[in-house]
């Protein structure tokens, strides 16, 4: 049987196909219990630290509610409220937290930081998002796919429309490990403001795909990418807090890759729409309104009609963050 007790969860590259499937099966069990109101306080008396150097809604709430459902206590360290990396080295903070907590979640920037935290703390560390990877997100994405298409997703196809980043990286990794076809569709030129896959990540995914039969590709041709896709996935084109010049060039670069009804119409008949959220589809949000005013556009990475439409599974996907993150904590601490 699979046993990942004591392990950190930093990147899905570190986990085998069976270990990933085990985490997904466990997520299904935990979701069923939660929905049926069956208590599952399996980790009563343990405590976890939730370190966020960037803001979060879903990830933070999933870790907090997940930990509480498992009977654990939580301490949240906000983006500015800890000494880590400023007044104290990562290695020192890691050793302190490791003396007090049974597990540590970390969201931040450089992936090396979460690796260092794991190396020095001596307790399981879970990656809540780094520049390179967003592994808990990918687990929730695939749980949502399973709910729609069944447990065996071999031969299904997911298209990621738009900007490469941590979400696309982890999606490519999990698809390659599970034999799911994956295509990233976006500009492929080496121009300022554009990001394509880092060669080392893409090569690792190709190695995994060779074992599982997954077909991985990148293209700038929307029709070619979306044809036959069972899921069309997207993410925001630019992060909050990034300079206006970047917004301007990124919007111009990414606009051809907006997920519209027409794009969904090119996919398989049963295709679903996925988005890790938050989304800027809604110009009623502060950021959405700024974009609409500043750039004279009313729609960003996805149209309202797709986001709110019958193929959208974005809120199931968001809920699944809870069940999958809970599975990760339980499997590594239980
Ligand atoms: N998808 C995701 O990571 O959401 P948050 O940034 O709200 O945690």
From TrEMBL:
**Which family is it part of?**
Belongs to the aspartate/ornithine carbamoyltransferase superfamily. OTCase family.
Keyword Transmembrane, does the record have it? no
**Subcellular location as annotated:** Cytoplasm
GO MF annotations in UniProt: amino acid binding; ornithine carbamoyltransferase activity
Question: Which leading EC class covers this enzyme?
Answer: transferase
In Swiss-Prot or TrEMBL terms, this protein is called Ornithine carbamoyltransferase
Its taxonomic placement starts with: Bacteria, Bacillati, Actinomycetota, Coriobacteriia, Coriobacteriales
Catalytic activity, EC: 2.1.3.3
Which GO biological-process labels does this protein carry?
citrulline biosynthetic process; L-arginine biosynthetic process via ornithine
Q: Cite the Gene3D superfamilies for this sequence.
A: Aspartate/ornithine carbamoyltransferase
Question: Which residues constitute the signal peptide according to the record?
Answer: none
Q: Tell me a GO cellular component.
A: cytoplasm
**Which PROSITE patterns does the record associate with it?**
CARBAMOYLTRANSFERASE
What reactions does this protein catalyze? Answer: carbamoyl phosphate + L-ornithine = L-citrulline + phosphate + H(+)
Tell me the keywords, alphabetical order.
Cytoplasm, Transferase
Q: Where is the Aspartate/ornithine carbamoyltransferase carbamoyl-P binding domain?
A: 7-147
Predominant cellular place of this UniProt entry's protein: cytoplasm
Give me the residues that bind carbamoyl phosphate, please: 56-59, 83, 107, 134-137, 276-277, 321
Residues annotated as binding L-ornithine? 166, 235
List residues of the Aspartate/ornithine carbamoyltransferase Asp/Orn-binding domain: 154-331
What's this protein's function?
Reversibly catalyzes the transfer of the carbamoyl group from carbamoyl phosphate (CP) to the N(epsilon) atom of ornithine (ORN) to produce L-citrulline.
- Superkingdom, natural source: Bacteria
């Amino acid at each position: 049987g699979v046993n990942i007790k004591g392990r950190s969860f930093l990147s899905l590259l570190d986990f085998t196909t069976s270990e990933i499937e085990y985490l997904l099966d466990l997520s299904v069990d935990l979701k069923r219990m939660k929905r049926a109101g069956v208590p599952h306080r399996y980790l009563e008396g343990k405590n976890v630290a939730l370190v966020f150097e960037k803001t979060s809604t879903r990830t933070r709430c999933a870790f907090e509610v997940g930990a509480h459902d498992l009977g654990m206590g939580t301490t949240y360290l906000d983006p500015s409220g800890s000494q880590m990396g400023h007044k104290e080295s990562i290695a020192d903070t890691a050793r302190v937290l490791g003396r007090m907590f049974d597990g540590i979640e970390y969201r931040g920037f450089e992936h090396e930081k979460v690796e260092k935290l794991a190396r020095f703390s001596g307790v399981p560390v879970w990656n809540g998002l780094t520049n390179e990877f967003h592994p808990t997100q990918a687990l929730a994405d695939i749980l949502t796919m399973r709910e729609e298409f069944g447990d065996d997703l071999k031969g299904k196809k997911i298209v990621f429309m738009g900007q490469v980043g941590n979400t696309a990286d982890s999606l490519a990794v999990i698809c390659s490990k599970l034999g799911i076809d994956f295509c990233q569709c976006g500009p492929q030129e080496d121009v300022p403001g554009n990001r394509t896959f880092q060669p080392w990540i893409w090569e690792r995914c190709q190695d995994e795909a060779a074992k599982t039969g997954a077909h991985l590709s990148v293209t700038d041709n929307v029709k070619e990418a979306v044809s036959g896709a069972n899921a069309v996935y997207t993410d925001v084109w630019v992060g909050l807090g990034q300079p206006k010049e970047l917004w301007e060039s990124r919007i111009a670069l990414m606009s051809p890759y907006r997920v519209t009804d027409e794009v969904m119409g090119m996919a398989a008949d049963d295709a679903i729409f996925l988005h890790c959220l938050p989304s800027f589809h809604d110009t009623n949000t502060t950021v959405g309104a700024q974009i609409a005013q500043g750039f004279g556009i009313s729609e960003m990475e996805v149209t309202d009609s797709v986001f709110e439409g019958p193929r959208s599974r974005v809120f199931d996907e968001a809920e699944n963050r809870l069940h999958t993150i809970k599975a990760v904590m339980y499997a590594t601490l239980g």
